# Entry
Amino acid sequence: MAVSSSSSAFTPKPTRLSFSDQSIGSECFRSVSFPSRFHSLKKGSRSLESTRQVQSSRLGVIVRAEGTSEKMKVDISLSPRVNSVKPSKTVAITDQATALAQAGVPVIRLAAGEPDFDTPAVIAEAGINAIREGYTRYTPNAGTLELRSAICHKLKEENGLSYTSDEILVSNGAKQSILQAVLAVCSPGDEVIIPAPFWVSYPEMARLADATPVILPTLISDNFLLDPKLLESKLTEKSRLLILCSPSNPTGSVYSRKLLEEIAQIVARHPRLLVLSDEIYEHIIYAPATHTSFAALPGMWERTLTVNGFSKAFAMTGWRLGYVAGPKHFVAACGKIQSQFTSGASSIAQKAAVAALGMGYAGGEAVATMVKAFRERRDFLVKSFGELEGVKISEPQGAFYLFLDFSSYYGAEAEGFGVIENSDFLCRYLLDKAQVALVPGDAFGDDKCIRISYAASLSTLHAAVERIKKAIVPLKPPVPV
# Structure
């Protein structure tokens, strides 16, 4: 989408858009108001309409039995488990921004965690050839032996991890791999330890397993890395799973080997505690930072479930392919869930994934080129936002996100909008005033911040920064910095 570098083409009235992520039973989306030239947009896009969700209490619909005048109520209540889960705020914002853009509003979309690059040609060709050669039937539930063997080779060569093919489960994306792992190892009442800021889905996955998410805050001054002492103080006999994500979504922080070793020593003292290591961004990392797989640490292989996939490094988000590696006992349990859930992943995507793993160490030149571009974009954004008064920055060492502390602007009043109360209000204000879609930090467990995805071209980022600065500069930080 061509993006204008100026927002002067039109002057919208405040767009009263809510990014509410309250549990089902409340509004997930609220109506969006625009000047008269945009009134027709609301009629053609369901995502811009007010969407109502079912209340958790018992509800009914009156129906008439065929051939009789008798009325009876049909129970349309939802499961308490579903009602306990919050919708994904990143998905909600991305969908709304996409709808606005498709309707002609020049919104710059920096909310989604999706590379803007095309899937490398060699991968795409492998998928096309799979279709042409009729490789379109079901695969084994755990994934093809060809792909699982290639994953074992990758983990050995790049991560120093030894697995056999029956210790690998290929799924429809790393998100499915994580959810199945949580469901497989957690019992009702167990605690899932999650450092914040966190990927939005971790706590909700714990709730789906009837487990309790225990959130451990981190500090921007510590680069949003977990303090081992805090971890140790929060572990109990109910602690079942620690989730680590390095490089991190949403902060881009990378755990050093030394810090991971400190965490591993604590984990080793708790027999029930397992670790889920989300390594989906492992190849999007900026020197001198390096990636360490948690399972490679002494004594951690037996209690670690390593999750990875192809979406981020290989720009294969739409191919939907991820995997979990771990001890056979746990992986087999995940496979049991998958066999009754989705069965095996796409045969075509699996052929493409084999080609991806054949591109060379860490994805070879194609991935290195993407990482170089991400680093240039990161450097530009860090420099640009460093010029804004009151903004605190932790420079990302990996992934493609910038998690900025804008809390010094909370309490400021924006003309024609109102008071910027929190990250949700700030993101709504920036969408209203600058037509830039970002994600509020409260979705990730830190309301002081907002997340910017720099999986967009430098020209798009230049335009976004110009718009954001123009909207922010009139706001004077009411909080002393």
About this structure: The chain is about 35% helix and 15% strand. The chain has a mean pLDDT of 88. The longest helix spans residues 364-386. The CA atoms of residues 11 and 433 lie 8 Å apart.
